Amino acid sequence: MIYQDSLEFAQDLDEQDELKHFREKFLFPLHKGKDAIYLCGNSLGLQPKSVQEEIAKQLTNWQEHGVECWFHPEARWLEYHLRLKQPLSKILGTKSEEITVMNSLTVNLHLMLVSFYKPTKNKYKIIMEGGAFPSDQYAIESQVNFHGFDPKEAIVEVFPREGKYILRTEDIISAIEQNADELALVLFSGINYYTGQMFDMKAITDAAHKAGAYAGFDLAHAIGNVQLQLHDWNADFAVWCSYKYLNSGPGGISGIYVHEKHFENRELKRFTGWWGYGVGKRFLMTSGFVPASGAEGWQVSTSPILLMAVHKAALDIFEEVGGMEKLQKKAVLLTGYLEYWLKHLNNKYGGELFKIITPSEPEWRGSQLSIICKRNGKAMFDHLSNNGVIGDWREPDVIRLSPVPLYNTFKDVYSAATLLNDSITILE
User: Fold this and answer.
1) Mind giving me the DSSP string for 295-340?
2) Which of 170, 298, 338, 398 is 20 to 30 A away from residue 411, measured at CA?
3) How far apart (Å, rounded) are the C-alpha atoms in residues 242 and 44?
4) Torsions phi, psi for 315 (to 5 deg)
């Protein structure tokens, strides 16, 4: 598309947008009595209006039926999580039995590492991207320590080449091949939180398997953001959170994916709990763990119904959209429009004021651009904030802006870009 720098152009794109009515399904923070320009869905998605109704429904169930809610036909809490699996399987590109909803992301990562990090004297290394989200780094380090290995030797981080911000797939593959004899696990993000780079998960998985290692992914910034095909990519496991692009509330319920090829592998260790016991015999309360079928066999604790109610309200919107393809199509245009404006401002002022460190190819990014401000970066960010643009600042000099196709408009991008333009002249 050939973009233009006028308000009329942005308004025309909004008028043509087949998803425009979904914006009305969300609640926006207010700035001076008006909706803020919310470009921070990469950190916390907006609240769907339907959340209050869904939570109120479950509170009423609790009030009227008490403990009977677990079985009462109007509540059916025992099966509540099953309502979430089908919409999630479409978003993730999995079979419904390969996923379940439980816990929080880092807890689930630890549970998956119990099964899929099985170090031996000879194969004990883990490869991950350099600059992964800190929680992943801490979890991996603690797992390595738990198994008695030195993190400095066992953890291999792959960084971009000198002077670059984006990791090349061939460098990741090369690191896997070079460490193949000692490699136990490859763990990558689907999308790097800082740069917004989407990794080639299929290529990484194929290389890991060729090296005799497992491949797992943290999809915190990928789920609900880009199209995924975890089953076809043959990934062994994945974890995610639901409070970013899935709009399921702060600290919202997480989930796991386990490829069906591992369901009957009794050599995989796991930490177990009552909720993961076979459904038909769970209430017999017998000793000796017998896992439920599929990914549900990795469940540990009772379903938190109120968190799942928020999740259901958000996933219902994805179901109404009718597929990630439609969201991806708009995301490409919307993020491309933001990219156009940043380059336009660079050209206007005769220099690279804004350096985009997110990949320029739409297929290798989602709804996020990470921008290095070459001068007055924090002041520019503060100018945006003071004028109703909610974005994200990362030290020392990066602004992350995420125009989300479910609720952001082209006018939002235009308005944010106009404020960036104003900040340049004000701060000179």
Assistant:
1) GGGG--S---HHHHHHHHHHHHHHHHHT-HHHHHHHHHHHHHHHHH
2) 398
3) 9
4) -70, -30
Q: What is the CA radius of gyration of the chain?
A: 23
pLDDT band at 284; cut points 50, 70, 90: confident
Hey, what are 385's tokens? 């904030």
Torsion of CA 191, 104, 326, 409, to 10 degrees: -80
**Confidence label for 407 from pLDDT (cuts 50, 70 and 90):** very high
Q: How far is CA 354 from CA 90, 279, 369, 375, in A?
A: 36, 55, 11, 9
Instruction: Give the domains, in start order, of the chain with CATH numbers.
Output: 7-35+324-427 (3.90.1150.10), 55-320 (3.40.640.10)
Tens digit of each residue's pLDDT (9 = 90 or more) over 77-104: 999 999 999 999 999 999 999 999 999 9
| Whether the Cβ atoms of residue 269 and residue 114 lie closer than 8 Å to each other | yes
Instruction: For residue 238, give the nearest of 212, 220, 211 by alpha carbon.
Output: 220
Tokens of 355: 């350096």
Sheet holding 155-158, edge to edge: 99-101, 255-258, 237-240, 214-218, 183-189, 125-129, 155-158
Burial (0-12, 13-18, 19+ Cβ within 10 Å), 268: middle
Q: For residue 288, is it left (φ>0), alpha (ψ between -120 and 50) or beta?
A: left
* Percentage with pLDDT > 90 across the chain: 94
pLDDT digits (tens, 9 = 90+) for 221-243: 999 999 999 999 999 999 999 99
- Residue environment code for 232-241, b if the CB has 16+ CB neighbours within 10 A, otherwise e: ebbbbbbbbb
How many other C-beta atoms lie within 10 A of the C-beta of residue 34?
A: 9
How far apart CA 159 and CA 171 sit, in angstroms, is 9
Does position 66 have pLDDT exceeding 90, yes or no?
yes
Residue 182: strand, helix, or coil: helix
Pairing of strands 155-158, 30-31: unpaired
